Amino acid sequence: MGSGAFIPRRGGSARALVAGAVATLVVGLTGCGTADQPAPVPTPTVSPAALVEEAAQVLEENGLYSGGDWSAERDALLAAGVSATTLEEAHDLIAAAAFDAGGRHARFLPADERKAAYTEAPSAPPTVEATQGRTVTITVSAIGHEGPLAEEYARTGVEGLSALADANTCGFVVDLRGNWGGNAFPMLGAVSPLFDTSEVAGFVDRDGRHDAITVSTESATSTDGYELRFDSGVDVLASFFAGKPIAVLQDFYTASAAEMVLAGFSGQDGVRTFGEKSNGLATGVEGFLLSDGSEILLTTSRFTDRTGAVMPEPIQPDVSALTSDAPQLAHAWLAEQCAAA
Fold it and tell me: What pTM did the predictor assign?
């Protein structure tokens, strides 16, 4: 898959919402394998023209921005494909067309780059620490995996928050700065004790079809049937979290799957965001494996908040500040909320 969030494809397999600079953080949307072991690469026997034709069909049928009349772009791509003499030339044509059909969140990966990208996907768990003014801060890092690593990531967040939060906790900080994305499901799971509802976000495709993401302290699921179960071994006491103010930190490097976390907190009472505008990749990217082992990571959907409203790109903070100043402002606001409580 790629850099953003991991959400099921209609029909039961997986859709990836992938994040900009780490596009390809999670394995292909067929649900085969993990980021460390991408699906086997077929032996390349396809001609350049046939590969371009295959890609053109994928782009026209699925691209977020090819939903209108894309016939002129398709015909130009096919004509250029006929003249291509090598797969490298075909790849260049497909890469340019993917950008046209999917915008800047789309990406094309030749087979060798695809393998390297999945192997190098980040997997550092979130960190949770007690911070000034009786607050607890969770730093939500990029995670480009599904499977056991994604489950452990979500558990780490839930268990860390549960271990440090108590009746005297004033509020919480969710730090999304520098998080380029990957798989949104473990990120949402990691911060699940902080949500005041279960249906927190979703996505909508070019035809207006909506799917919702539901999160609990044991799982993160979508209405398409995908479920990440992480079943933490702790009892989460809702009273330690309910009604507590939450400051969310963001910056320009908060992208894709991390922007899905921003969407999850959008509209929640007692939440204020601090920092810089996000990267503006609040879109879902789905992986399509081609017959030569290359892959198109194609933008196919937009993120929505808990009400189904499409998230803006970029997502602006409630309080604009330099990324270095955001924590201080966030803690000052939390202190005011605690004093007034």
Answer: 0.88
